[in-house]
Amino acid sequence: MGIIKGIKNCFSFLTRFPIGKEINLTEDLAPKIWIFPFVGLVLGLISSFVSLILFKFLPSFLVGFITLGFLLLMTGVHHTDGLIDFGDGLMAMGTPERKIEVMHNVAIGAGGFTLGFIVLALTGLAISYSMNFIIIALVLSEIGSKFNMVAACSVGKSANTKMANPFLRSNTKKHLVFSLSLSIGLIFFTIFLIMIFNSIYSDIIFLRFLFSPVNEISLWNFAQVVLILIIFLIGTIIPLLIVLNLASRNFNGLTGDCLGALNEITRVFILIFILTFGALNLV
User: Fold this and answer.
1) Backbone φ, ψ for residue 46 (5° rounding)
2) What pTM was estimated for this model as a whole?
């Protein structure tokens, strides 16, 4: 029963889905954020199937940015706001306290605009070039981006801000292991779904009419599965280390905006990695 409540609370916090529940961050949500990757799975599956339909009727360049817009709509642009504030804080001069004050300012500065534009533009472009493996690309990037927020809360230091404190105080390396195990399980589940989709795609006329085909991924192709797991690990570790380092040097620790920025940055890292290996016909 606690897990079901935790899932509902995670969806309520991370998405605009009509859960309609008030959440106490410290008591209801913070101890259960290790479930975040499950929300990433749902967001990735929904957005990937929307993009598969769009790829059937629209140019891939348009599909990439429409899919990104749909994904941001489902999440309420919650973490994109953190990304922009993070960019403003990095560019601000002065003490960590002054930088955090700039992050909390509602105005958008040059640093926030530039970082937000680069990350979102790269994300939209990466999606547009991932047509042949869009399901694994979007699901992997969403699971990874949600997992990385858990990882940051489990190993990072808090800057003692109102939003970040409950999450960093309630999570330890134990929660990191829980979330990593869940993420890997969800990745295998996604590969299994892709196998099912590919097995029935050619047999059902309606599916062939509605969806674009996707490259086959098999649980029995050991090298392919290992590569996907490597992409997941590299695509999460690199942005995690970058954001932790920048947060420590600029803000004396993590803020809520740092976690939001990490979500957006991790997504584009994983998309670029999987796009690179996909272009080499390895995924």
Assistant:
1) -60, -50
2) 0.92
Distance CA 147, CA 283 (A): 22
Q: Which two tokens stand for residue 192?
A: 């299994």
Question: Under 8 Å CB-to-CB from 148, ≥6 apart: which residues?
Answer: 236, 239, 240, 262, 263, 266
CB proximity list for 266: less than 8 A, separation 6 or greater: 141, 144, 145, 148, 235, 236, 239, 240
The total of other beta-carbon atoms located within 10 Å of residue 129's CB is 17
| Number of other CB atoms surrounding residue 251 within 10 Å | 26
- Mean pLDDT of all residues belonging to the chain: 88
DSSP SS3 for 246: helix
Domain ranges of the chain: 2-279
Q: What is the pLDDT of residues 26-52, one digit of tens each?
A: 566 888 889 999 999 999 999 999 998
Helices of type H across 132-221: 134-155, 165-170, 173-201, 205-210
Cβ-contact 125, 142 below 8 angstroms: no
Read off φ and ψ for residue 187, nearest 5 degrees.
Answer: -65, -45
Residue-wise pLDDT tens digits, 266-276: 999 999 999 88
Ranges assigned E (strand) in the chain = none
Whether 264 contacts 81, CB under 8 Å: no
